[in-house]
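Hypothesis: this fold can be encoded by more than one sequence.
Test: take the structure tokens below, design a sequence, compare later.
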């Protein structure tokens, strides 16, 4: 048997997972639907779980809730509906929903199979701010905003100016050959999923070629930077923790 070299790798403060590396498994709250655990707290120092969940046509998850955890779901393929607090949120490609802490939810596929990206983390509250309420929408509800770097635009899916929120979900889009204007080093951890195109990602002191469907986990203070390839635009969905300094919120 010939085993091809993999672009997937584990580095100091980061990991790269490609579709060729996927190993579907199961989680009780997701029933019998296959899930790829892209990152969990087993990958220290990660404080999130990020999962690719595939739903068979007509299939769905077991309706459960874990006290203290909040959830973000982003539609990738097919037809999926999220049910929470008596409301239905269609999650076709590009649609998203935020489920507040300790709120039960269910995922159901329609007549065709569905695939979603799920981010799970323990909500870190802050005195004087009520926990955020549910939010849903679509990536096309608002245009991408220009940045100081020509050819680099972004779309924020969750409020960025409200300290009640402890994480952001952003779509970052780059014209061919365009990249971030510096190598960043900061205390925010990242979960990054390539939604289109590819390019070169600097992680630590190493350059990695990334493509559509790849996932990168970056620990706090991991040096990082991206430049899109010349063949077309590149885009990724980016999780990062915000408005907090790393001291864990009390757990009941």
């Amino acid at each position: 048997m010939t085993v091809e070299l993999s672009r997937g790798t584990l580095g100091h403060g980061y990991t790269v997972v490609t579709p060729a590396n996927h190993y579907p498994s199961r989680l009780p709250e997701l029933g019998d639907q296959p899930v790829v655990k892209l990152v969990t707290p087993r990958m220290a120092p990660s404080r999130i779980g990020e999962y690719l969940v595939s739903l068979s046509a007509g299939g769905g998850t077991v309706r459960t809730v874990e006290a203290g955890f909040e959830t973000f779901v982003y539609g990738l393929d097919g037809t999926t509906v999220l049910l929470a607090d008596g409301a239905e949120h269609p999650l076709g490609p590009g649609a998203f929903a935020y489920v507040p802490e300790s709120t039960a939810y269910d995922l159901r596929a329609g007549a065709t199979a569905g695939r979603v990206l799920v981010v799970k983390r323990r909500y870190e509250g802050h005195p004087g701010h009520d926990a955020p309420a549910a939010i849903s929408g679509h990536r096309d509800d608002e245009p991408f905003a220009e940045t100081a770097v020509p050819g680099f635009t972004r779309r924020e899916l969750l409020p960025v100016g409200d300290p009640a929120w402890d994480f952001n979900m952003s779509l970052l889009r780059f014209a061919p050959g365009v990249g971030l204007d510096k190598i960043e080093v900061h205390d925010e951890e990242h979960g990054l999923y390539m939604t289109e195109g590819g390019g070169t990602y600097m992680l630590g002191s190493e350059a990695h070629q990334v493509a559509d469907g790849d996932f990168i986990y970056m620990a706090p203070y991991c040096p990082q930077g991206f430049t899109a390839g010349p063949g077309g635009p590149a885009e990724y969905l980016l999780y990062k923790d915000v408005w907090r300094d790393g001291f864990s919120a009390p757990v009941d």
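The chain has a mean pLDDT of 92. The CA atoms of residues 199 and 228 lie 4 Å apart.
Hypothesis status: open.
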